[in-house]
Specification:
Length: about 280
């Protein structure tokens, strides 16, 4: 897992948007508070942003998007391992929320049961990015069936959408307000909130926090593994601190990845153009 050498303050805002003293999503606060049954408070809040456990389609290298497949045995074990780890955490995890897609819900429920949280809140805004035509297909099938759309996707345009799917910007527009509102609701209450979502969502949020540029010019790849933890803190002025990224210390790390794991770890990594410098993406 990559851990920054020091805590890094960041603004969680849409790229190109104007700074705001508290949150760029204030217009959506009342709606989110009512939907989640939670009210904002007054001090900084810690959020553990986690990708769901490994699924059958992850193992097969298929795009899931807003479709779903069950957790594998390994995926269930990953969730159990994370739950046991969080149970020993110095700062109690006392609030659990999740995407409403079954793979994320199951992961969250397993963890919540272990740490003793009885109420798991669901948010549609935390769903994976919709991949439209690509959903259910392997990388090879996408290359064969939709070569033109795949070529467009590989340009990593913030506003491009696969037919029937969502653009990256649309995902940011729905997931960032949710995270800001969950954090605002936890301020002043102590403890820690666990947020279970998806590889595409987590990587998009991190790109915004880190200011990673769009397009094919960046020289890295942001890989979000199943049940990896990103430890974030939101201050009362709306700024976020990144304490760690991609922490999988609770999982056994094999000496070499299984063949099924080399196809794609997160859905948009399959959109990358191949060997050589890679755009940092989902």
């Amino acid at each position: 897992a990559f851990v920054p050498s020091k805590i890094m303050p960041m603004d969680l805002r849409l790229r190109g948007g104007n700074p705001a003293p508290v949150s760029v999503f204030q217009g959506q606060q009342d709606e989110m508070s009512n939907a989640g049954g939670i009210e904002p408070s007054a001090e900084g809040a810690t959020i553990l942003l986690v990708r769901h456990g490994k699924t059958e389609w992850n193992a097969a290298g298929r795009y899931q998007g807003k479709q779903d497949s069950p957790l594998t045995r390994d995926g269930v074990q990953q969730a159990i391992a994370l739950g046991e780890r969080l149970k020993k955490r110095r700062s109690t995890v006392d609030f659990v929320c999740t995407s409403d897609l079954p793979r994320a819900k199951k992961t969250a429920e397993i963890i919540a049961n272990i740490i003793g949280v009885t109420d798991v809140k669901e948010f549609e805004g935390l769903r994976e990015r919709g991949f439209g035509l690509f959903e259910g297909c392997t990388r090879k099938e996408v290359q064969e069936k939709y070569p033109d759309e795949l070529a467009k996707s590989r340009k990593f345009d913030l506003h491009y959408k696969v037919p029937g799917g969502e653009s990256r910007q649309e995902v940011l527009d729905r997931c960032l307000p949710v995270l800001n509102q969950i954090a605002a609701a936890r301020q002043g209450k102590g403890g820690t909130a666990l947020v279970v979502s998806h590889g595409g969502v987590v990587s998009l949020v991190l790109r915004e926090l880190l200011g990673i540029p769009w397009g094919a010019t960046t020289k890295g790849e942001l890989r979000i593994l199943n049940t990896s933890i990103c430890d974030l803190e939101r201050q009362t002025d709306g700024r976020w601190y990144i304490r760690s990224i991609g922490d999988t210390a609770h999982c056994e790390v094999p000496s070499a990845p299984a063949p099924s794991d080399t196809v794609e770890e997160t859905q948009e990594e399959a959109l990358s153009p191949g060997p050589g410098p890679m755009p940092v993406e989902q």
